[in-house]
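Quick start: read one record
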Amino acid sequence: MRLPNELSYLRRFFALALTSLALSTAAWAQVSGRLLHTFKGPEGSGPSATLISDAAGNLYGTTNTGGRYGVGTVFQISPTSGYHLLHSFQGTDGSGPVFAPLMLDAIGNLFGTTRYDSERGCGTVFELTPAPGGKWTFSLVHSFQGQSDGCMSEGGLVYDAAGNLYGTAQYGGTYGQGLVFEFTPGPHGQWSETMLYSFSGGPDGRNPVAGLLWDEAGNLYGTTSSGPPTHPCGNVFELSPPSVPGGTWTELVLHSFDDIFDGCNPEAPLVFDAAGNLYGTTVGGRTAGYSYGTVFEVSPGPSGWTENLLYSFQAGDDGRWPYSTPVWDSAGNLYGTTFAGGGGPCNGYGCGTIFKLSADGNGQWTETVLARPVHGKHGAQPLGGLLADTRGNLYGTACTGGAHGMGTVFEITSHAAGVSRNALAP
C-alpha cells in the first residue's frame, strides 16, 4: 500500500528545491552538541542515510544530491582533518544513494547502493577501496538491469565471512515485486549475482526497502514495505539458508502489519536486542487514530513470533515518520529520529525530532524529545538514524538546514542524551 499524498511527498522530496531555513539555534538548546559539517552543493547536499564509523573514529556517509555532477556523493569526516569528498556520482555509476547506509568490510573497503543510475535507471552496487595518499578508488560491483536481477536497491548491504554481499531490491525478481540478492566476488574482481528469494506480492510481501540483518545461525531478517490487499502494510520476515548446497532459501513471515492496530510500511532495517527480540519502525500506522509511524518489537516465543507496539507517533511535538532504525544503550533505552513533526515550517510538515524511548518496569514506553530542529543552523528533517560511539555520543545527519540549506552532520554528546559513557556499541 502506498501511503497518502502527504507521505508520497517524501518520495519526491529531493526533486524539490530545498528551502533556505532560518539560523535560529533555540530548538537545539535542549541538548549539548556540535555541528561537524554544513554541506555546500559541490561537496554534496541532502545527506539522508545513517552514518557509519571506522576504528579510527572517521565517519562515512552519502549525500543524495549535489557533488560535482549533482547526483550524490560519498564522504568522510575525520576527527582530525574534517570533511573529505571520496566520490561524486556521475549518473552512469549511480545516482541518489538516498537511505542506504554504507558498509565497511573487514579490510576497510566501503560498499553501498544507489537507487538510480543514468543507464537503466535501476541503480547500482558500488565499492570504494582506500588507496595511497588518502585517495579512494571507485568500482562498480553491479549495475541493475531491472527485472531478473532487481531494480532500486535502497537498503544497505551486509556481508558474510567469505566476503559475499547481501541486500534487497525494491522491484524486479521473478514477479517484479522485489528480491533478496547475493553478490559473490570472483578471482579477477568480477562479481556474480544470485537471487536468493523473489517476493510474489502475496502473503510473503513485496517491495523491500530496508536492508538485512544476520543472526548467529546464518538467517537473514528484513521487512517488506507493502503486501497484498488483505495485508497491504508489509511484513517482518526471516530468510533461512538451504540445508544442502545448491538448495533454496526459505522465507518465513514473522509478522504482517495491520495499519489500524500496529503500524504500516516498515522502511528501516531491523535491530536485535541481547535476548533475540527484533526492533524496528514503520512510517505509517493509525494506532489510537494517528497515522504517523510507530516503533515496534517482534519477539520469538514457543508458538511463534508476536508483535508489541512500543510507541505510536502523534505528529505533534513528538514527531512523525521515523524512517530510521533506533539505536540501543546499555540501560535499554532507544534513540532515533523522525523526519517531520516537532514543529517548524519545513513545507508544512514540521522539521523533525531526535527522540529517546524509555521503558518502565511494566513494559510501558515513554518518549522524550531530545531536540526539535525547528529552524536549522544545526540542520532539519533528519531522515537517517543515529550512530553511537563507545563514549555514548550520538552522530546523525539532517537533510536540510545548515548555513546553506543543504544539510548537516551533527553530534549530540553523551551527557546531553542521558547516556552513560561506554554504554553504546561503536
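Confidence is low (pLDDT under 50) at residues 1-29, 420-426.
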